[in-house]
Automatic annotation (TrEMBL):
<dbReference type="Pfam" id="PF04483">
    <property type="entry name" value="DUF565"/>
</dbReference>
<dbReference type="InterPro" id="IPR007572">
    <property type="entry name" value="Uncharacterised_Ycf20"/>
</dbReference>
<keyword id="KW-0472">Membrane</keyword>
<protein>
    <recommendedName>
        <fullName>Ycf20</fullName>
    </recommendedName>
</protein>
<feature type="transmembrane region" description="Helical">
    <location>
        <begin position="95"/>
        <end position="114"/>
    </location>
</feature>
<feature type="transmembrane region" description="Helical">
    <location>
        <begin position="29"/>
        <end position="50"/>
    </location>
</feature>
<comment type="similarity">
    <text>Belongs to the ycf20 family.</text>
</comment>
<feature type="transmembrane region" description="Helical">
    <location>
        <begin position="56"/>
        <end position="74"/>
    </location>
</feature>
<keyword id="KW-1133">Transmembrane helix</keyword>
<keyword id="KW-0812">Transmembrane</keyword>
<keyword id="KW-0934">Plastid</keyword>
<keyword id="KW-0150">Chloroplast</keyword>
């Protein structure tokens, strides 16, 4: 006689969830990594160009506002599409790739900010 406790069933669900995520990661790992790298490149490029834009007397707060607006627009598109019931596989892949680009872009800006400190 086997008894399944609530803890065991939750643990089983968790491991099944992790396995599904690894399978998804295996399918799209290379494209995700490439888009992460491209986003990182554009983030570093943006950080380098910001210095040139400052010479045009555009306030840094305006540039930060544009960057925040870009980030929130992507987040809104990603998470509003996840709530829909009828998502095609192509839409989900596009959103995942857009998210990878966004993560790389923000990581590139973050790494580029260390140049200011040194």
């Amino acid at each position: 006689m086997s008894y399944l406790t609530r803890y065991y069933s939750k643990l089983n669900q968790f491991f099944n969830f992790i396995i599904k995520k690894f399978i998804k990661l295996k399918k799209n790992f290379l494209s995700f990594l490439v888009l992460l790298f491209i986003g990182f490149f554009f983030g570093n490029l943006f950080g380098t160009i910001v210095d040139s834009v400052r010479r045009l007397n555009i306030a840094d707060s305006f540039l930060i506002f544009l960057l925040l607006l870009f980030n929130e627009f992507i987040n809104f598109n990603i998470y509003s599409h996840y709530k829909k019931k009828k998502n095609t596989l192509v839409e989900i892949k596009k959103l995942n790739f857009l998210n990878a680009f966004k993560i790389g872009f923000l990581l590139g800006i973050f790494i580029d900010s260390f140049k200011v400190g040194s």
